[in-house]
Design brief:
With 84 residues, the protein is mainly alpha-helical. It is built from one helix and two strands. A two-stranded antiparallel ribbon has the order 1-2.
Length: 84
């Protein structure tokens, strides 16, 4: 048949079109997966940093309490420093 080659080319073009669309979708999914993994790592690192900052704040609170006690500063925690 004279149209066999044309029909085969059309089917091949349709197949290639679907394949390109699938490849584009898979590339996007790979990109999103990489982004999510990167965000997950950043969240974990930030959690560690927050824990370290919490420990430093606790240490600074202890030091400030020691200074207040050593200098005998009139201090009421809820109201702040008291004017004499």
């Amino acid at each position: 048949m004279a149209t066999t080659g044309i029909r085969l080319q059309r089917e091949n073009d349709e197949y290639q079109s679907v394949r390109r669309a699938q490849d584009a979708v898979l590339d996007k999914v790979d990109g999103f997966e990489s982004a999510i993994l990167g965000l997950t790592e950043n969240v974990s690192r930030n959690g560690d940093r927050i824990d370290a900052l919490d420990r430093r704040i606790d240490l600074l609170d202890d030091k400030l309490d020691a200074i207040i006690k050593h200098l005998d500063v009139p201090y009421k925690p809820p109201a702040g420093f008291v004017k004499e």
